[in-house]
Input
Amino acid sequence: MRLWLAHYWLYIKAHKEMEEGGSQLVLQTAPFDARFPYTNQTKNCWQNFVDFHRCSKKLGEEHESCKYFKRVYTSLCPKGWVDNWNDQVEAGTFPGRI
Amino acid sequence: MRTVLCHPYHLVEPSPWPCLGAGGAFFITVGSVMYFHYGLVQIMYLGVLVVVIIMFVWWQDVIRESTFQGFHSLVVKQGIKYGMLLFILSEVLFFFSFFWAFFHSSLAPAVELGVVWPPQGVNPLNSFSVPLLNTAVLLSSGATVTWAHHAIISGKREEAILGLSLTVFLGVLFTGLQGVEYYEAPFTISDSVYGSTFFMATGFHGFHVLIGTTFLIICLVRLKLNQFTSRQHVGFEAASWYWHFVDVVWLFLYLCVYWWGS
Output
């Protein structure tokens, strides 16, 4: 949670700086996450997908914090995986705890 | 005719068993392919039957040469013991591969499993129930086989028979309990990599317990037939080494697969 807060803070800061600088377009990909230091980012993708659903359950999909998780997993995960997992979440067969 | 040997080695007579045994193994291989592809079991059973018969007659020859003809000198016995130890070492490596598979899958569980071990939805067996009892059963059998060994060395025939009978009984009890445990298990070998690694590792261990029990039963029969002396009992020693090996594999299975893995 603390790690995530640090990322989130950096993300907001970047956003604000860009907006103050007059730029409208913010280009950003998933930041480095010390929990997933290896080349294989499968579990980083997975964790953000799970965190997004946990977050949505608590705060609603439109909450800024949840949007952050969604941006990260959309950036990291292959689309096929996300489609598959969304089907599983709908069917109640997703293996992660949400 | 008397021959004088100028060396301590046993030069065996030409024997048909290696060739016929290989033929039986070939039938098992071809028969297994026929079974896997067409459900035809006859050839496989024929292969098993041939191999079992060859095992019987081959070891019958070995017993004749050692116990009744006295060909097994100190050097020959030493060679057999080294051979048995190397065989057991190869068995250790065999089980090493199943532990490797288990740890590969369980130390960093894949996303398909929910990144947890045991995988999401798999209810493992309670390690403090029957598996703990089985640990006690196998450890006790290790003690009784040592009792039998010391009885043989001390020339106490009745005690040796009692100790070995108890060992065989505990071995059979273990197999029975494992059978019940398998029957009652809430997961199967096709339930994720958990089921695959669990039944592959514990199943092969169970198979080795059956082999070890057979080995001990043969030793018990030979003990009753007065074929072991306090100085000449390599067959028994090999059986007890094998049994201890099976025992140690179980300890690791219990600690890793049953306890930590649940």
Summary: Chain A touches chain B through seven residues (CB under 8 Å). Helices of chain A lie at 2-20, 42-59, 64-76, 79-91. Chain A has four helices and no strands.
